[in-house]
Records
---
Amino acid sequence: MPASLQFHGVTTSTPPNAPLQISNSSRHAPSISVASNRLKFSGSAAALCRLYGRSGAVPKVCCKKEVFKDVVEGRGREVGKVEEELTCVMKFGGSSVGSAERMREVADLILGIPEENPVIVLSAMGKTTNHLLLAGEKVLSCGDLNMSKIDELTFIKELHLRTVQELGVDTSVVSAHLEELEQLLKGIARIKELTLRTRDYLVSFGECMSTRIFAAYLNKIGAKARQYDAFDIGFITTDDFTSADILEATYPAVAKRLHGDWISDPAIPVVTGFLGKGWKSCAVTTFGRGGSDLTATTIGKALGLREIQVWKDVDGVLTCDPSIHPLAEPVPFLTFEEAAELAYFGAQVLHPQSMRPAREGEIPVRVKNSYNPKAPGTLITKSRDMSKAVLTSIVLKQNVTMLDIVSTRMLGQFGFLAKVFSTFEDLGISVDVVATSEELDHVVEELKKIAVVNLLQHRSIISLIGNVQRSSLILEKVFNVLRTKGVNVQMISQGASKVNISLVVNDDEAERCVKALHFSFFESGDLSETDLDDGFGNGKVSAFKVESR
Ligand SMILES: Nc1ncnc2c1ncn2[C@@H]1O[C@H](COP(=O)(O)OP(=O)(O)O)[C@@H](O)[C@H]1O
Ligand SMILES: N[C@@H](CC(=O)OP(=O)(O)O)C(=O)O
């Protein structure tokens, strides 16, 4: 039986002396895809060059299956299996890896898809991040050095040690981290200080431990795996602790490290989500809560992978938050723009920044359910058929403060809006996330010099993600529903991205509104998708209400 080589499940065959044609083409090529990684050298390419006695750098690499065909057969008998490329990234969140049983199921899930060579990204187990933060707060406020009184630490220790035991891996994979964590908490208690920088270091223990346990378990069951701390493999960020941004240098560095290791000694990479390294401080940073999604999309872009999968505890992105309305349904397709808007306006399902690398690299993102892998999930791509789309999803952001700003000067006074925005800029406040009342007091004080300002608290933003080409139709329906419910809309805004209409209502009416809107758009069966062709949307309204008298 002639020997043959496997390229991502495509068995190829070739005459021995065919020339090795090398060209830099498609990103999603099936195998020797140096182009995909923007690296100079690919393992498979290297193998092919060895096959043909070529050495040194590969100028460009062929991505065409037909060429593999020409090259591989015959010589393959001599060389054996050419290494395969990493194909996708699979991110599992805390809810997916919250126990030994869940880790086993996730391992089965990964190994049950043999055609994929995934990079695995994991979050901390279950609610570990919350427990770490609570433990930090507790030792800070009580200053007690007796760690056995800190329930959250006890819980974290028990969870990780129990998981290690149940999976049958060596306790040493987490014991040093547990010891160090205790020392850190004692340090916080002693110096009575918990800076944002220390907070990031504190929460990093969650991901550092979950990935070590999981990699050890994969190795134990015979699937060779290698653990990575993201802050050690090139995730370079700004020094904005607790909400760091990933810097461009990350992409080549991460690609070089993961790809290089894979080529020289293939093993499933298991990478900590959520964590990076500040470029100035060299300290551990985090990307903000839910930041492991961003780790996954960054790796996807860095390596030019075929697909990014984020595995959750729901059947994909849903038509609304299932904790608000249990009849929420999966949305089968989304564009990067829609998904980004949805995340930005508060849908917990995706990290707000996570779509950026995927969009830039044009890598499809699939949101799947690790508890129900057969469900199709949501596929997020650059574009989709919008011809029938009306409303895609409803997002609720509660406890928002609204500033009602009315100019005291003449109508049309130029420079007014510039002054309003420069006030926010000078005070370093993002319009959308004014965090503390102290900050608000400063803003109001400054704005009162040029305007009448009303501070309206306890408001909610309901964001309607959908086809804003149908905004008149959407708004007609929305106002009908809200009128029958006796709800007054206090502000309306259409995002420049053209996929989002936002409404501001009182907090205590918000959930009722979402349920009623969901019923009307998605359950009554008459309008979630339609062929009706109506006009274009209304004019833009600013993020907060500004009038001129
Ligand atoms: N529109 C939405 N679609 C899906 N999930 C949503 C939505 N809004 C809020 N959620 C919540 O987001 C959670 C995300 O899943 P989860 O598994 O917790 O994420 P992760 O694995 O990243 O921690 C879901 O459990 C769900 O309750
Ligand atoms: N563990 C971090 C990062 C993360 O992404 O978690 P999850 O994937 O479970 O949302 C957090 O809780 O925020």
---
Amino acid sequence: MKQVPVTVLSGFLGSGKTTFLNYLLHADHGRRIGVLVNDFGSVNIDADLVTRIEGETMSLANGCICCSIRGDMEETLVSMVDGDEKPDHLLIEASGVSDPAAIVQTFALSHDLRAKVYLDGIVAVVDGEQVRDLKGKNALLARRQIAVADLLLVNKVDLLDDAQRASLSKWLRQQVSDVRLVETVRGRVPLELVFGLGGKKWREAAEKDTLDVHVHDVEQSAKHAHENHLLEFETWTYRGEKPFDFTALKRMMSGLPASVYRVKGIVQLQNMPAERTVLQVAGRRVSFLGDRLWRDTRPYTELVFIAAAGKLDPDRLAARMDQCLADAKETAAEDRQADAIGKEVQINRWAQKFWEHSARAMQQRMAEDHSNGEQ
Ligand SMILES: Nc1nc2c(ncn2[C@@H]2O[C@H](COP(=O)(O)OP(=O)(O)OP(=O)(O)O)[C@@H](O)[C@H]2O)c(=O)[nH]1
């Protein structure tokens, strides 16, 4: 039986993996692609944000495929290959906290997997704006993700000037000398660079045992990695059914402590009642994007927070979220007055950008629908 090639997308929280995945799925490559998306939090946000016309998207949430749900990854991949519509290629979007070296081990060690799939390559996505701001264990994890990659997408270069790009490139070259670096905006890279990488680098590393984790000791290291993740990261999910005030929520998200690394999910905004909105906080950058019309779906809010372990205080966060609800009556009169002046400017500026984005997203979707209809 012909084995199916697998590409693993790795990269730190919020670097642009899902964005890249969507670009890839909509690009003209003529392959039937099976997708497996892994979310560290308990909600399948990423799978929800993967837009595709056809092909299978499987989702594994509430754990990390490099450790706690390694077995689930094996089973899911095998079932995808054995299914009625065998894919030509599999893409795995690893969670932003996963260590690709441990994923490589799973591929190297599982007989079931080895019979059906082979690792074609690891593509790491780097947040060009913020990767160098990562501290401590996050910085180490990001470096491990970079080190194992066969292809490195230096993403978000639209947020950098020429000097920053040059200095980032130099810094990355100091981290890894033997990998192809490609600067990208929203993960747009020539497809021939992505498929058929051959996985040479990881295979060599596995043979030389330089993956930094011992291949024969996978149970132990997986357990260790799992413990590390639980020790290092914590997640919490906010759910609600009342609409939020855009300005208040944006201000709150912009003021989150640095220990909150990532927030993502769906928000119901009073200012945009008809449209489902995606909220993204990656490091210090906050963005709202009109996503799709609610239509028959009852509007809701579901946001996953990922932070340094021990730094999330759910009660406090929930209280702060509630203060941003459109019908919140808590704001002191004084605050409200002070806000009113700032709000006037902010709402106009932000609402403008916000609508601009929504309109663009809508146009793009319509164009995609149109071109798909023509095929
Ligand atoms: N300016 C800019 N923003 C980008 C680019 N690529 C992605 N983003 C934004 O960065 C945020 C995070 O992108 P995602 O694709 O969700 O990141 P991710 O790596 O899948 O995130 P996790 O799965 O949570 O680790 C979103 O708001 C994207 O729209 C880019 O090239 N430039």
---
Amino acid sequence: MDKLIITGGNQLNGELRISGAKNAALPILAATLLSHAPVSVGNIPHLHDITTTMELLGRMGVQLLVDEKMNIEVDSSTITSYEAPYELVRTMRASILVLGPLLARFGEAHVSLPGGCAIGTRPVDIHINGLIKMGADITVEGGYIHAKAKKLKGCRLVLEQVTVTGTENLMMAASLAEGITTMENAAREPEVTDLAHFLNKMGAKISGIGTDVLVIEGVEKLGLESIHYDILPDRIETGTYLVAAAITGGKVKLKNTRPDILDAVLDKLTEAGADITTGDDWISLDMHGNKTKAVSVRTAPYPAFPTDMQAQFIAMNTISDGVGIITETIFENRFMHVQELQRMGADIKLESNTAICKGVKYLTAAPVMATDLRASASLVIAALAAEGSTKVDRIYHIDRGYDHIEEKLSQLGAVIRRVPN
Ligand SMILES: CC(=O)N[C@H]1[C@@H](OP(=O)(O)OP(=O)(O)OC[C@H]2O[C@@H](n3ccc(=O)[nH]c3=O)[C@H](O)[C@@H]2O)O[C@H](CO)[C@@H](O)[C@@H]1O
Ligand SMILES: C=C(OP(=O)(O)O)C(=O)O
């Protein structure tokens, strides 16, 4: 298992290009299953989750062609299997995203239940109940969801809870259903919006995009002509590098990103003392060498503060001036980074879904263990500001969601290297 060794103390300065969004690329690659003609997808990030998705589609018999710029051409006309096996689903929950497209286009899907994982139980009942309401016949047996439907039927869906992949699965299924589906309490995350634009480009009829009421008029077929679609930039990768620069008192310019989908994060960084300027596709942050001020945040569905940035802000608060209170409202077990940060000298008290972080003067290096994707990012951020060399173990989590992290951080002046085993 690879490890990262990070020697803290260097200010991060310079420019960086942000990659395509993992959480948009995964549903869009799943949605290519709906297309009759081959589809080309660009701005795909180099991530382990992308490799897993390609393996998943490949095992179904789908043909994939990747060029040197990471454009992926997907041809689903050669499909031979409608199964997402356990050994792939267990490494990437987003595999559940093939359920809606397989069922809607081929009338059949066998998808392993993702099961509980590090950050919470993460059930998929809303996905299943929505498909049942659209007429699917679903049984859960032997750890698999077995779904069948001759033709899904449009209906009114009121989602019990805001769910990102749930909205995406049901939106993909409804695109090929007979009649109109109205989805209320839908997720409004920019990645959901990106998927909706992609589906419409393939011929779907989705309106209400970007709101919490989606109206989807089912069509007979999707993707009768080949299209190309570029994935939107990764707002969480963007936010992570901004926090990394802020904790070191540095100055960075992030290019190929989207400030308009990062309002909640940019507001909190400004409150922390960062000088933020933006253009259409860039964001710059300048701390003028100053220490950050602790900030309080409460995670909630978009457009509020994202749960996927919670761990990074806790890391920043550990050596900020003052006390920051972080409340996690989406996942019940997303504070596992706290214990590791405490090993580096952080003063954090956990009270149910709240972390009270009191800034300390300095953090000290320690061997730490990554427990999930964003927890890993928070340990890297803390290590950049800590005294000494921190060893971050189990970084396969980070490789799921951060494109060339050590190269990108090195480019900004960080002292970081990957060591095998
Ligand atoms: C691949 C992807 O896009 N992952 C993102 C997606 O995950 P994901 O789509 O899995 O997260 P959800 O939005 O579904 O989860 C939100 C909440 O709803 C609950 N829930 C969800 C579905 C369901 O059927 N029943 C149920 O109870 C979950 O347990 C959780 O408490 O959104 C999360 C919340 O923004 C992000 O942290 C993840 O990075
Ligand atoms: C939790 C995340 O991803 P996933 O839903 O793929 O586990 C994340 O991106 O922070």
